[in-house]
Specification:
Blueprint: H1 2-8, H2 12-24, H3 27-33, H4 38-52, E1 57-60, E2 63-66, H5 68-87, H6 90-93, E3 105-110, H7 118-129, E4 134-139, H8 146-152, E5 157-161, E6 170-177, E7 179-183, H9 188-192, H10 198-203, E8 205-209, H11 219-226, E9 232-237, H12 243-248, E10 253-257, H13 258-268, E11 271-274, E12 282-288, H14 296-310
Parallel strand pairs: 3-4, 3-5, 8-9, 8-10
Antiparallel strand pairs: 1-2, 5-12, 6-12, 7-10, 7-11
Helix pairs in contact: 2-3, 2-4, 2-5, 3-4, 7-14
């Protein structure tokens, strides 16, 4: 009877609070996401602790960490929230989606390795067709476990580049890009031209983004390693959009796609040079989980992302 009484006192919003607080590991950040106040979320967390008989979040260093019980509740809570969206959305049940009227919330995780104007174009396209929609744009980083979050329904779509995307996920190829190098105007590679050899490339000082998985090589280093090669990476940066500034003020070499480099080369008087090492095209994908594969709203979201990629100027594709 006590268990029934507990279930009877849990509403859907309380489940959302549970999921958000555990995901954010912060009452203040959870309050911002829930568009609530910190005292109100604290009170709801207290109620959840009473209902579950578990502290859920405990002090860890200067922050909070979820208990084992809380982590075990995360996926069931996400599943319940997703099922509730389908249950109470008539358009979803009927297999239709009307973007002009929908108040759907889309959650997208993306790297900024592509054209820096690409994600703003995605947002512009979505908001033009679905003015009531909300978007959460998450950075794709080493700390962001996108496979778990897709499986748990915490994000709807992931956009990035992989040599071999995870096999358990659906994928849609967006664009292929040429691998080039971005350097300062007075870098030796500019003067060397065709004489810039593989050996000189590998010996140069390189800057690279931090890989999506801790301890794992990025796409460029992964390909080099497969060829038995290793470059001299002296700087690794979490903020990819700041790397061109580093390149312009140093002898660093950035190896990435032409799309990204061309935007910054034009704006900052940097130079794009060929990469002496042969690379296959850099392929960008969107990834999603089977759980969201048939949802009409998320099919529409994927169409908007695909159309934004196809709308890039021909010289940028």
């Amino acid at each position: 009877m006590a268990q029934r009484h507990g279930i009877a006192n849990i509403d859907l919003h309380l489940v959302r609070v549970l999921h958000t607080v555990i995901s954010e590991r912060s009452v203040s950040r959870a309050a911002l996401r829930l568009q609530s106040t910190q005292p109100m979320v604290s009170a709801q967390l207290k109620r959840l602790r009473e209902l579950t008989g578990d502290p859920l979040l405990v002090r860890s260093g200067q922050g909070l960490a979820p208990t084992d019980a809380a982590l075990a509740m995360l996926e069931p809570a996400a599943r319940l929230l997703r099922e509730a969206e389908l249950l109470f959305a008539p358009q979803q049940r009927a297999g239709r989606f009307d973007p002009a009227k929908s108040e759907v919330a889309f959650r997208v995780a993306a790297s900024d390795y592509l054209d820096p104007f690409f994600l703003p174009a995605v947002v512009q396209r979505i908001k033009a067709a679905a003015p009531l929609a909300q978007l959460e744009m998450h950075p794709l980083s080493a700390e962001f476990d996108y496979r778990r979050k897709l499986a748990a329904g915490e994000v709807d779509l992931v956009i990035g580049n992989w040599l071999q995307p995870p096999e358990e996920l659906h994928l849609g190829r967006l664009i292929d890009d040429e691998v080039v190098c971005l350097v300062a105007e007075d870098h030796p590679a500019v003067r060397a031209g065709r004489n810039w050899s593989i050996e000189r490339y590998l010996q140069s000082e390189h800057v690279a983004p931090i890989a999506l998985h801790v301890g794992a090589p990025g796409v460029i280093d992964q390909h080099l390693a497969a060829q038995g090669l290793k470059r001299n990476v002296v700087v690794r940066a979490a903020h990819f959009s700041l790397i061109p500034l580093m390149v312009g003020r140093s002898r660093l070499v950035l190896t990435t796609g032409r799309l990204f480099c061309s935007r910054y080369a034009e704006a900052m008087n940097l130079r794009i040079v060929r990469c002496p090492v042969p690379f296959p095209p850099l392929s960008y994908y969107m990834l999603w989980h089977e759980r969201s594969h048939a949802a009409p709203a998320l099919r529409w979201l994927r169409e908007q992302v695909r159309d934004a990629a196809q709308a890039l100027p021909p010289e940028k594709r």
